[in-house]
Amino acid sequence: VKHLFGVSRSVRRPFVSNVKDTFGALFAGDIKYWDVILGFSCIAIVLILKRMKKESSKWDTPGEIPPTHVRISRKVIWLLSTGRNALVVLVSALIGAIFISQNYDHKLSFVKPMREGLPPGEFPTFASSCETVSIRTSLPCNNQNRTGLETVLSDFDVGIVTVPLIGLLETVAIAQAFARQNNYRVNPNQELFALGVANVASSFVSSYPVTGSFSRTAVNAQSGVRTPAAGLVTGSVVLLALGVLTPAFKYIPQAALGAIIISAVLTMVDVRILLRLWKVKAMDLLPLMVAFLGTLFLGIEYGVALAVAVNIIYLLLLQARPHSSWQLLGNALVLRPHTGLDFPTVTFVRERIEELRLKLTADGHAISVVILDCSSVMDIDFSMVLALQDMYNDLRRGKIAFVCACASPPVQSVLEAGSKLPVCQSVREAITSGHSGISDSMNVRPHAANEARSGNETDRLLQPFNSRNLNPDENL
Question: What is the pTM of this model?
Answer without folding.
Answer: 0.58
